[in-house]
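Journal club prep — side note

Before the paper discussion, L.F. wants everyone to see what a predicted structure for a comparable chain looks like in token form. Sequence:
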Amino acid sequence: MRMLFRISLLLSAALLAWLLYGTPRSQFGQLLLLFAGLFALYGFQLGLLRRQDGTAGAGAWIRELWWSGAALRLLACFALPALSDDYFRFVWDGRLLAHGVNPFLRTPEQWMQSPAEAAALGLDAALYAGLNSKAYFTIYPPLLQGIFYLAVRLAPDSVYGAVLGMKACILAAELCSLWLLLRLLRRAGLPESRLGLYALNPLVIAELCGSLHFEALMIACLLAAVWLLERRGWAASAAALAGAMAAKLLPLMVLPLLIRRIGWRKAFGYGAAAGGLLLLMFLPLYDPQLLRHLSESVGLYFRKFEFNASLYYLIRWAGYEIRGYNVIQIVGKYLAAATALGILLLAALERKPQAADWARAMLWAFLIYLSLSAIVHPWYVTTLAALSYGTRYRFAVWWTALLPLSYAAYQTAAYQEPLGLTALAYGLLAGWLLAEWAGLRPLGRWLP
């Protein structure tokens, strides 16, 4: 069986290389077929891993699994992102920082109104043309800005060189996540084969190391926060969570889940420490306009953008039927409030919460957020794939397999989202989730 496992990994590497190095985002048919092949191999690999649980050679399998996950990520790191164009903004912000300019103060459109000044900072027309949010202020927190700066300093004149520098950070974060997941599984006495759920997941590898998304850094810091809370106490854990918030602001929402786990006093100290460290990381970028511009960008995120949503699309449809127009400007803030309320209710209604099951609670908090969000890009769900390690639920794995359907929106230059495919994907996801809530285990013989 070891030979079958290795052959399947070689096939996965070949399909992954074809996907990341030879498949434009607009080639939806090819993209879908490659993802289908990758997930078929992934299911086969998980089935082999599950058979090794409790056997004499299980340890050797787990070591090979860890290194296989690392090798596939390394393979993905040399590809210029083909499934996302976010990296243009990363390089844009990095070039501003490399010249001592705060990226939070002007939008790209405003910079290009002074072409000579922009050109002196390396903000050329080719880089500008690749941006997808030219009229908006940057939304990336300080830890990411530091990575952008270092990557551009290492490769000041090369977009690809800067991308490689950033991907080195993504790879390091992913290797830390694999290490932490293995330690967390061992500490909880859970089957180590569950590491494969994240280590070999094709969407996780393609979106994080392949398409350069910094959810990888947030995931590593969240797992570190869980690990440190169990072993070192709340102070060290708070520093790790501050790192997660400095990569993506979203982890702020998991703080209420600590109150009943460590008590009000420690939870307050935890939040104050994490928030204080986050503010310290923002300090080098401080400007009187920073908070206004950042809050403006966050507000636009909730009031303007929409992609691959679930409940929000039903609300939007009802809005068209009742009011005759898109109601995102109205409902966006209410969905954000509903997310906050849902997480507070989760924190209040949990049964016997303990520090050891904080990751499980995070899983449900992120699910609440994504269910009510107007935007669900494929890489957003990678966090759920990581946090599900300690539960019996595998809906996150199923969701990652369905998410390639969302790339149908990019088949033409004029963005067009086929809502029939979106409805199909969420229908299949809802069916799986309901089955698991009912105690069933779809594909239980294949998934660890």
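L.F.'s comment for the group: The chain has a mean pLDDT of 93. Keep this in mind when we get to the figures.
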